[in-house]
Amino acid sequence: MELLKQEKKQDPIEAIVVIFDTSGSMGSPFFGDKELSRMGAVNCIFSAFADKTLAFELNHIVKLICFSSSIVDQCDFTDDFNMFINLVDGANAGGGTRCFDALMYAVDALVKIKEKYPGIIPRIIALTDGEDT
To answer: Which tens digits make up the pLDDT trace of 93-109?
Structure first.
C-alpha cells in the first residue's frame, strides 16, 4: 500500500483586509439605478474578486470588516472565499460611517498577521461612499 504524502500548505502570499461600509447610505440606489443598490454593487464587486482569486489559484487570505456606527469583525483571515462572499451577501445597510476607525482596525489586523507571516504582502481594500462621521 502506497502512503500518500500530505503536502505542506504554503504560507499565504498576500493578506487582504476588506473594510466594507454598511452605513445607511449604502442602501441608496447605485448611480440612480432603481434596481441596484450600492450594497448590491459591492456584492457584485466582491463576488468577482473572489471568483478571480479562486480561478487564478492565488494564495491569498482575506478578512472582512463591516463598519457603520460600529465596527464588526466578520471573520478572521481565511482562504475560504465562499464564506467571505456569504458574509458580504449577508450585510445590511444602516447607521453612520466610522471609516477612519475601520481603517485603523484593519491596520492593526495586518500588523498582527505580519507577525505570523513576516513575508506576507499586506493590503486594505476599502469600499465606502461617505465621509467619516
So the answer is: 999 999 999 999 999 99
> Which amino acid makes up residue 53?
T
Domains of the chain, by residue range, sit at 14-127
Distance (Å, rounded) from C-alpha 128 to C-alpha 111?
Answer: 22
CATH code: domain 14-127 is 3.40.50.410
Helix axes 38-55, 81-89, angle to 10 degrees: 170
Q: How far apart are CA 26 and CA 67, in angstroms?
A: 11
Q: Give residue 87's Cα distance to chain centre.
A: 9
CB distance 75 to 82 below 8 Å: no
The three-class DSSP label of residue 114 is helix
Pairwise CA distance, residues 102 & 63, whole Å: 12
The per-residue pLDDT for range 45-89, each reduced to its tens digit, is: 998 998 898 889 899 999 999 999 999 999 999 999 999 999 999
